[in-house]
Amino acid sequence: MISLLTRSILFLFIVSSFLLSQSIHPSFGATSTSPTCVDTTISGISASGSNLIFLPKYVIDNNFNTLWSNYGKGSWIQMDLGSSKNICSVNIAWYKGNERQNNFVISTSKDGNIFTKVLEKKSSGNTLNLEKYVLTNTLARYVKITVNGNTQNDYASITEIKISIQNTIPIPPPPPSTGGGDGTGGGDGVKMIYPTLSPGETWFFNPTNPDDGQFDRNGAEITKNADGSWHLKPGTTRMLAFTKSSGLPSDEVRSSLPTYDYSRLSQIGHFYKPTDWKNVEITIYVKVLSASGGGDEISLVSRSARHSTNVHEGCGGSSYHNNIDFTNGKFKFKKEMWHVNYDIKSYSGITIGSTMDKWIGFKGIVYNMPDGSVKLESYIDKDNNNNWQKATELVDKGNWGDDMTHCNARTQGAAITWGSPMIIFKSNGVTYDFKKFSVRQIVPPI
Fold this sequence. Notes:
mainly beta, Jelly Rolls, 8-stranded antiparallel beta sheet, 7% helix
């Protein structure tokens, strides 16, 4: 039997490691449910026990810096929903959930006396976010989570719990999918793949006045065409679209952000502000006229803050690139682990042939998954008629790349899960006409 001294040491260890880590998690967006499920209020909570300062009430305080913890296999925490409800899922954020796996059982009851086991599972061990555990055909008032140790010790430690239930209020059908995301905003008429987050950041290129407080030409030479589209002269093009709340931060501001440490960023969830671009749908319409400057691709670049080898050893340059090669109509993805160090995937998905001298639409979509991975999707409107088809997709499960630890990521191929204040429209030596550029924060399909 474990000695009192050993238990005391273990308790002091978890207290000190918690206080030192100051783990700030990404937003609660990780608990996104289907349109028929919503988070419910937890009216009561109890537990088999708790440590002195890690009380059961802290799992429902919407604060990832607090937790419930109790020593011993079989420790449990129980939620009262107030009345029996149809449960869709139980969402749990585990303390140090990116370092260890927890063995646990979820059981439910209608009366609080007789419980039925509905799920026995291990946590993923690779995320600090809420992990979604789906339950089927479960009508219950009480939900009990019993923890049978983890891969490091026998503590049960949970930072947050949310329970989603079937929504009994009829949800009206969504408005037609247009570029504004809500059926009215934006006004560029481009169909959405995923709906706009509400409230969420958006940006639409203003063909009348591009300098709208969010768009930065960043040295690109652009002029307006007679038909209302715009023309880009060849060069090293890095046009930028910022979130409105960022206030168009300068290079200097983006060179002095609070942290460029990837482990810390994975906990905070953003480079600059909580409203940074994270889960996004980026859209462009272009007609490439010439590639005489030597380039053959256009990249939609997300999740970076500052691409400079002189700034924090290039660690502001973490990014995903959704690429289209307009000379052959092929698609691929790039991951910039830091500036400048890429891991480039081969062409994948469909091939549409050369798109030179014709209008096409191209979308790059990036969003976080509940298990801590990141999904990238590319779409194409090859006939310029607002009919979009998926070109290719990829999931970064944290095993893409070999040098994320250069910026103190936990693993060599760690996923880039944090947001940034800017999106880059990147090309080299390419001349093209363009219109209907946009960026929207989206509700991922998870």
